[in-house]
Amino acid sequence: MAAMLGLARHSVAGAAAGGPQDEMLERMRAAFPYPIATVPGQRALAEWQKLSRRGGGWPIIISGDEALERVLEQYSIDDRSVFPMPTNPDLPPFPAPRTPQEILTAAERIEVGAELQRLFDHEYGEDPFELEKGEWPQPHEIGSMGLSVDKDILTGAYLDKVHLCVLPTEDSADAAAYLRWGNWNACPPPEVHVAVHRKWHAEYGAQVVGMSGDVIGMRVTRRPASRGEALALAQEQYLYCSDIVLQGTETLEPLAAGLMESDWWYFWWD
């Protein structure tokens, strides 16, 4: 696939040879089995569209160098050939990293609503956690939403360079399984991302376009048709990624209104 796409298996961008940190980055890159392309940020979405039309795998926009390093780390963090750990003869050996197929199989057993509520209760406690009711914003009060991983989060300017990888699947919902993405802090484990994204693809045509170290960007083909539907979806997204409300919209109403106004969804975990 790398030859077909003209993608080089290069070392992590910006890493100079010689130090322990650089050696670790080289090991992470060597363990990452998917081809990577690097393009100017303003061309990232166009390149993604070209690769997705071509077929032969699902493209993911990763963002810049720091995001690439975090994606590589998440992929290989449990790989003891990349991150050696001292052995203890009195303890069982560390398990091998799960394969994408093992993660995808685990996703098939997940009931999304119950699992999201369980994870939310685990993070915040089982006492009732109710958001205040907010005001429904006016259309001009809703900021425009689009792809974010191709831009500087502070200035909104396009990044000088953005990395993309191509995963060996045609289903964007599989992306978290192939990247072993998640399972840190309040971010769900990979199989939950897969199950949620499968549900949203069936209901809204949602597809994963970007995945940086802590952000997922999705694009949909159908928006919620009513305020009630949008609020129910916003509640589900809040359980999935509470930071978009608690550190963002503060109430569900602005999130729900945005879901009715935009084809882009944004999720972020700290």
Notes on the protein architecture:
Pfam families: DUF4253. It comes from Alteriqipengyuania abyssalis. There is one protein chain. With about 270 residues, the protein is of the alpha+beta class. The protein has one domain (about 30-85, about 95-270). The chain contains eleven helices and six strands. It has a three-stranded antiparallel beta sheet with strand order 1-3-2, sandwiched between helices. Strands 4-5-6 form a three-stranded antiparallel beta sheet, covered by helices on one side. Strand 4 (about 205-210) and strand 5 form a beta hairpin. Helix 2 crosses helix 4, helix 5 (about 100-110) crosses helix 8 (about 190-205) and helix 9 crosses helix 11.
Oligomer: single chain
Number of strands: 6
Strand order of the largest sheet: 1-3-2
Our Rg estimate from Cα atoms comes to 19 Å
Shape call: globular
| Overall average residue pLDDT | 90
The biggest beta sheet is recorded as:
3 strands, antiparallel
The chain-level structural class is alpha+beta
Structure at a glance:
This protein is α+β, with helices and mostly antiparallel strands and 270 residues long. It has helices at residues 2-5, 20-31, 44-54, 65-76, 100-108, 112-124, 175-179, 190-204, 227-240, 243-249, 252-261, and strands at 36-39, 58-63, 162-167, 207-211, 215-219, 264-268. Residues 164-270 form the DUF4253 domain.
Q: Any descriptors?
A:
single chain, 270 residues, alpha+beta, three-stranded antiparallel sheet, 11 helices, 6 strands, globular, disordered N terminus
